[in-house]
């Protein structure tokens, strides 16, 4: 039995598989509460590193069995900020993530 020859379909270079949001970068602040875990800061910061962003500020404090973490990134589009917040919320030791985007009055929060 012979398999048919494979043919590659050519697409124009300007065609994209999915729409890409074209938002201006905003100043974004995350307020995170997580259980004490030795690698939680690394895992949270990795979410930005995977997207090629470096936080402008990182602050954390330990209170009993919890860590309160504040992260600020000033080069992040709102869409990307929301995606990163959802990924953080999916982490096992993360209890809550509040997302504040400069220029908006709303706070996107979830536990």
From TrEMBL:
The protein, known as: Uncharacterized protein
The organism's place on the tree of life at top rank: Bacteria
